């Protein structure tokens, strides 16, 4: 319960990251979600990724919409500002925040109802603008807070807890994100933290629109037989194409990769992404191939996971708008106001 | 039928151009208006245009007014009838004794004219066709040729028109000389073939002074530049699109880093109004000054976010360029019809600050001020323009800026402040008793000052709470904040009648010039009125005392339901009987004649003639 103060007690032996922060410095309030909720595992993965990257906890802005998933930013990075905005409108709020201060890290947390239904348009447009962000959808295929209605990512033929069959086609947000030009696209499973943590870390270090679809079973309304978003179903049908190791600038490559089994990608900030191939033919730099691969495997009922696409040379919205390096929110009157002399000239031109 | 003598007037008449949309007439017509200004004679032009790109009728009306009456007058003294589609209606709208100017290339049956007007035929098509071969040139220069003919007919100084053409086509010699040539073609033909001048003249004067000629939308956009707005998100909608377009062009000239050439602003065309206001709110939450410009339908779409801005206390600015509603209404016609919609926008108990500029100069000032108000009050500020101010060039006082002026960023707690011993930061804690709490920008301090912004109820420390008392405490503080706003927003301006009177009039926004002129007309009918121009909501206490000081007060506005009147009644607990609505809402700008007639008739009824006197 959020009104219960979480104990601040730190075990003196807790390991610290490069900045001297412990795990606890990246935590937030106690979750109010159901015990066993997939979303809490994603929260833990976000904490882990931020800890490993040694991010200053207050330099992240957490922005969400409305729904179970959108509550989670209260449960991690307690020293960061969070914004639980309006249903389906996280992308626009995040875009505005990003425009105001390009120096923070923007973490958008949303759900399948939030991003695939009411906010489908905002999802699409923030991706196509190339907003520098990590956009995570905690995807469970149902509306949890309103008690189990299908969402737009529910597969056709999937059964609700009440036994109703979904007859509408599903929206695959990963496929849409690829089509719209997202420069980092991944899918993972809340039950596979070892896969998820590096995917989040690399997305945070990516400059551009990074999108991660995390299948996150709803323990209360969508974890039964006949559902295609249950723990069991996703475990059985998970088809991981690769495994990711995120190597920050200073680290030497300590892992020995067998030749031909790894794809190395270097991002803008020097972060190297080592992609251990599970599917030998999968190329994470090929957008078109990724789209075809996804479609083929989806047709077979498989849930393709891993880093599906990355463009390490992507540009973001600030580059498109050619904005100054100084965050716009720290410009002052002397930088912004043209003054009375310029105004006199304007007056003269209007006579 | 009595013989109607032609209207004779110097520097006081109305010319209306009837054109086809997309025929290139707009720039020639604007040139006409500017030329008269260069004679030192005030003009007030208005675009009357359809929601269409090409082909439908469009009109441009120029009121020439030595006395400086900038409201619409009504009636037409000289009709430049260039559109066969609207001929009959255009001819019918000419005042008795007025003039009709038309293209006489093709003969017209006499039944198409009126006996009580002066008809002036110029074979425009014949002249253009014998001079130009290119169809586009024929079209464009035809407009300049009729301008030339008008120059002769109205006794205008051609040098002044040439000078304006010279400024317009500076550096484009070929265009310049061909335009000047076309001008003289029309003027010479008129001088040789017609009786020039007609009864309407333009005579040089000195009534323009240092005033500028500007559109309200451009002025509001410039106010945003001066007020420090760095983020603009918008979605195209008439009549507001030119705000964002003007902001873009002002920023290109005024807002690039001199060293790197990079932009000190970000402008995003949103995918809809929801995204636009979302971007504005995200940017403002993060400490930038941000705004959007829209019109009625956009306001409807934005209302959920407007409620968030109110309740989560996030500064934001919306410029609402009002048009005739409801629904799609009349997208290219003017009204003041979103007063209630904006004052109480969004579900639940909400109230918002509205500013009502009267002209471009005030649009500039209020736009700049709106960012200070938004930051200081941490809430949504509406700048309420309308199509009449926004999309027409209006003569107004020059724009002014005091270089000593600093931006008021409101109560923002810095890292240094957070580290002060004993400092208690609660995002919704009313430390000063004015209802305004402190906020922090994201990323301020490693361990202090962060909070979770939400549209749900929360306590003074921004912690989620559904406790009734905590909710009510917060809602009461928001009322307190709104009371604080009352003394921060622009105050009403009051002007007393020449003689003491029991009657008053309240008006606002674009009604101002018509109202000022109507006062004179009413005085001539023997009616004295004290007047008050309201410039903002929440209403200053002087509004209630103004009403209390008069037997009753007329409230003049451009909507059907008397929305400002409703707001005054509702917010000040005024007896509705004491406020007499004077309503104009056909989509055309309100005129002095309309106001004077409506108020005058009402006043006449009050003057009860004693029975004995009446029968004798």
Automatic annotation (TrEMBL), chain A:
Single Gene Ontology BP annotation: small molecule metabolic process
Top-level taxon of the source organism: Bacteria
Residues covered by the Thiamine pyrophosphate enzyme TPP-binding domain: 66-214
Protein name: 2-oxoglutarate ferredoxin oxidoreductase subunit beta
Record-linked Pfam families: TPP_enzyme_C
GO MF term list: oxidoreductase activity, acting on the aldehyde or oxo group of donors, iron-sulfur protein as acceptor; thiamine pyrophosphate binding
Keyword tags: Oxidoreductase
The organism of origin for this protein: Bradyrhizobium valentinum
TrEMBL record, chain B:
Gene3D superfamilies cross-referenced by the UniProt entry: 3.40.50.920, 3.40.50.970, Pyruvate-ferredoxin oxidoreductase, PFOR, domain III
GO terms classed as biological process: response to oxidative stress
Protein name, entry field: Ferredoxin oxidoreductase
Domain annotation Pyruvate/ketoisovalerate oxidoreductase catalytic: ranges: 22-187
Domain Pyruvate flavodoxin/ferredoxin oxidoreductase pyrimidine binding: 223-389
GO MF, any single term: oxidoreductase activity, acting on the aldehyde or oxo group of donors
Organism the protein comes from: Bradyrhizobium valentinum
Keywords recorded for this protein, A-Z: Oxidoreductase
Superkingdom per UniProt: Bacteria
């Amino acid at each position: 319960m959020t009104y219960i103060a979480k104990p601040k007690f730190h075990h003196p032996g807790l390991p610290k990251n490069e900045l001297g922060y412990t795990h606890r410095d990246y935590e937030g309030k106690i979750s109010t979600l159901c015990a066993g909720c997939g979303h809490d595992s994603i929260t833990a993965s976000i904490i882990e990724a931020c800890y490993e990257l040694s991010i200053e906890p207050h330099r992240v802005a957490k922005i969400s919409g409305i729904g179970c998933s959108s509550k989670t930013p209260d449960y991690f990075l307690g020293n960061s500002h969070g914004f639980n905005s309006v249903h389906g409108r996280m992308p626009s709020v995040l875009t505005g925040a990003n425009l105001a201060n390009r120096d923070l890290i923007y973490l958008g947390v949303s759900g399948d109802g939030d991003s695939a239904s009411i906010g489908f348009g905002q999802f699409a447009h923030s991706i196509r603008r190339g907003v520098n962000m990590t956009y995570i959808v905690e995807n469970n295929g149902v509306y949890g807070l309103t008690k189990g209605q299908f969402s737009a990512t529910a597969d056709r033929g999937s059964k609700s807890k009440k036994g109703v069959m979904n007859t509408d086609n599903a929206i695959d947000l990963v496929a849409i994100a690829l089509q719209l030009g997202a420069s980092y696209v991944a899918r993972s499973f809340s039950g596979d933290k070892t896969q998820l943590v590096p995917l989040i870390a690399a997305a945070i270090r990516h400059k551009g629109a990074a999108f991660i679809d995390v299948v996150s079973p709803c323990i209360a309304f969508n974890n039964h037989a006949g559902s295609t978003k249950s723990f069991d179903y996703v475990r059985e049908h998970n088809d991981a194409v690769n495994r990711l190791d995120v190597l920050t600038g200073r680290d030497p490559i300590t892992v020995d990769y067998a030749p031909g089994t790894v794809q190395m990608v270097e991002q803008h900030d020097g972060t190297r992404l080592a992609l251990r191939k599970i599917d030998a033919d999968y190329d994470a730099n090929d957008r078109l191939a990724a789209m075809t691969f996804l479609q083929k495997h989806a047709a077979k009922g498989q849930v393709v996971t891993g880093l599906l696409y990355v463009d390490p040379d992507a540009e973001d919205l600030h580059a498109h708008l050619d904005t100054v390096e100084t965050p716009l929110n720290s410009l002052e009157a002397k930088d912004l106001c043209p003054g009375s002399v310029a105004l006199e000239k304007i007056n003269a031109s209007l006579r | 039928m009595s013989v109607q003598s032609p209207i004779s007037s110097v520097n006081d008449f109305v010319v209306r151009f009837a054109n086809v949309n997309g025929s290139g007439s707009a720039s020639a017509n604007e040139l006409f208006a500017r030329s008269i200004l260069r004679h030192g004679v005030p003009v007030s032009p208005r675009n009357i245009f359809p929601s269409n790109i090409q082909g439908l009728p469009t009109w441009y009306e120029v009121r020439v007014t030595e006395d400086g009456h900038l409201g619409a007058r009504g009636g037409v003294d000289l009709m430049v009838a260039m559109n066969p589609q609207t001929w009959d209606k255009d001819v019918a709208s000419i005042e008795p004794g007025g003039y009709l100017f038309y293209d006489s290339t093709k003969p017209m049956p006499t039944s198409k004219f009126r006996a009580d007007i002066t008809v002036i035929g110029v074979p425009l098509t014949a002249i253009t066709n014998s001079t130009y071969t290119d169809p586009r040139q024929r079209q464009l220069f035809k407009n300049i040729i009729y301008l030339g003919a008008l120059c002769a007919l109205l006794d205008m100084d051609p040098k002044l028109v040439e000078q304006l053409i010279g400024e317009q086509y500076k550096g484009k010699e070929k265009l310049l000389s061909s335009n000047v040539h076309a001008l003289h073609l029309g003027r010479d033909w008129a001088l040789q073939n017609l009786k020039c001048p007609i009864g309407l003249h333009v005579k040089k004067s000195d009534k323009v002074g240092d005033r500028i000629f500007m559109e309200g939308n451009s002025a509001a956009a410039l106010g945003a530049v001066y007020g420090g707005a760095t983020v603009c998100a918008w979605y195209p909608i008439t009549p507001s699109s030119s705000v964002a377009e003007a902001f873009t062009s002002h920023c290109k000239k005024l807002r690039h880093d001199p060293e790197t050439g990079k932009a000190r602003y970000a402008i995003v065309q949103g995918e809809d109004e929801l995204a636009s206001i979302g971007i504005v709110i995200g940017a403002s939450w993060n400490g930038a000054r941000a705004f959007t410009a829209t019109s009625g339908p956009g306001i409807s779409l934005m209302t959920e976010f407007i409620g968030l801005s109110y309740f989560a206390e996030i500064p934001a600015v919306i410029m609402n360029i009002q048009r005739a509603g409801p629904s799609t209404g009349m997208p290219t016609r003017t009204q003041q019809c979103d007063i209630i919609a904006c004052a109480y926008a969004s579900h639940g108990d909400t109230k918002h600050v509205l500013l009502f500029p009267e002209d471009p100069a005030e649009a500039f000032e209020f736009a700049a001020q709106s960012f200070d108000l938004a930051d200081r009050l941490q809430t949504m500020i509406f700048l309420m323009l309308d199509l009449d101010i926004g999309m027409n060039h209006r003569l107004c006082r020059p724009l002014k800026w005091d270089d000593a002026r600093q931006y008021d960023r409101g109560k923002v707690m810095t890292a240094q402040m957070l580290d002060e011993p004993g400092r208690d930061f609660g995002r919704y804690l009313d430390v000063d008793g004015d209802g305004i709490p402190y906020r922090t920008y994201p990323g301020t301090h490693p361990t202090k000052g962060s909070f979770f912004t939400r549209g749900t109820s929360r306590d003074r420390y921004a912690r989620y709470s559904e406790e009734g008392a905590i909710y009510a405490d917060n809602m009461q503080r928001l009322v307190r904040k709104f009371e604080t706003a009352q003394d921060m927003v622009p105050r009403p301006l009051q002007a007393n009648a020449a003689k003491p009177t029991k009657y008053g009039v309240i008006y606002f926004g674009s009604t101002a010039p018509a109202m000022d002129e109507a006062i004179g007309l009413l005085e001539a009918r023997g009616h004295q009125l004290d007047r008050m121009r309201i410039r903002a909501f929440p209403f200053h206490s002087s509004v209630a005392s103004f009403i209390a000081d008069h037997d009753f007060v007329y409230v003049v506005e451009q909507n059907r339901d008397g929305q400002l009147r409703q707001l005054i009644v509702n917010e000040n607990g005024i007896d509705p009987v004491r406020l007499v609505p004077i309503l104009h809402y056909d989509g055309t700008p309100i005129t002095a004649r309309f106001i004077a007639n409506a108020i005058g008739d009402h006043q006449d009824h009050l003057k009860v003639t004693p029975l004995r006197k009446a029968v004798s």
